[in-house]
Amino acid sequence: MTKLKVGMISFAHGHAHSYLKSLLELPEVEIVGIADEKSSRVESVVSKHGLRYFADHQELLKTDADAVVICSENVNHAGQVIAAAEAGKHVLCEKPLGLSVAEMERMIEVCETNGVQLMTAFPCRYLAAVAKAKKAVEQGEIGEILAIKGTNRGTAPGGWFTEPGLSGGGALLDHTVHVMDLMNWFTGSKVTDVYAYCNTLFHEGLEVDDAGMIHVKFANGTIGVLDTSWSRPKSFPTWGDVTMEIIGSKGHLSIDAFAQSNMLYSDSLGKGVSMFYGDPMDFYMVKAFVHALLAGESVPITGLDGLRSTEVALAGYRSVKQGESVAIS
Q1: Beta carbons of 211 and 231 less than 8 angstroms apart
Q2: How many CB atoms lie within 10 A of CB 37?
Q3: Which of 165, 172, 234, 269 is 20 to 30 A from 145 via CA?
Q4: What confidence tier does 266 reach under pLDDT thresholds 50, 70, 90?
Q5: Which domains are present in the chain?
Q6: Contact yes or no for 49/16 (Cβ under 8 A)
Q7: Strand 243-248, strand 145-151: pairing
Q8: Is the whole model's pTM more than 0.70, yes or no?
């Protein structure tokens, strides 16, 4: 069996644990090691799975890895993607892809120049409810999409996510990109105008925004609105949600992507807990990345997809600063 050799760079983002689990479940993958400047973040998984540890990601890039998965702080994505591409490694990068349009364009350019593929980590495309809704739209079951109302509300993640120098923004950046990618994917169009609101309403003393609403207009005339707020308290039974109400010229689609769940009520936990039993979106996304590379095919979610969703969030911050709608060229 031909195997894809994969390394991981940073466990700063919690999604790294799920991505590692997914890689370990794929027999066609060989994990060459994990790089993280903070050994404390990875020592348990390195020890548990007998993996090689690198204190410097540049050392990992000197190995015979075919690809790397990057889950570092947002501010480090660009530099690490570019370094990986220059080392001839394909890349799966955590969202948001970058912190400026210019650096994301540079990331895409360097990957293309070096003949490697760049995939943005948007696992929500692999949720069953989302995938089935996309198929219904493609089959014309609701006609032309006229408007989309979405939510990606969650609890405040804490840690480096709330440090502007590492995250590049708050809830408006963190929670715009997933559902905006779905809106881009469903409409097949590009956002041209953005009007947004953000503030710090739920967590006193936070250095970044924890509340956000973003309104968009697409080139094909579709309009959208998205609640990106970290508005869920710690006592809430889930981390958050991904929903979309899609209004078509011939019908309507209502998507609650994490509705496949049981509720657990336990005094020892102190609160009700939602236990999701739906398909593992991270596994299917990682599997799609691996299979595309092994088959010599294009990755299903590109760096350009990552740019298209992130540029909307960045335009949202400009809109807030200017107090008016802003255009995206």
Answers
A1: yes
A2: 15
A3: 172
A4: confident
A5: 4-116 (3.40.50.720), 125-279+310-327 (3.30.360.10)
A6: no
A7: antiparallel
A8: yes
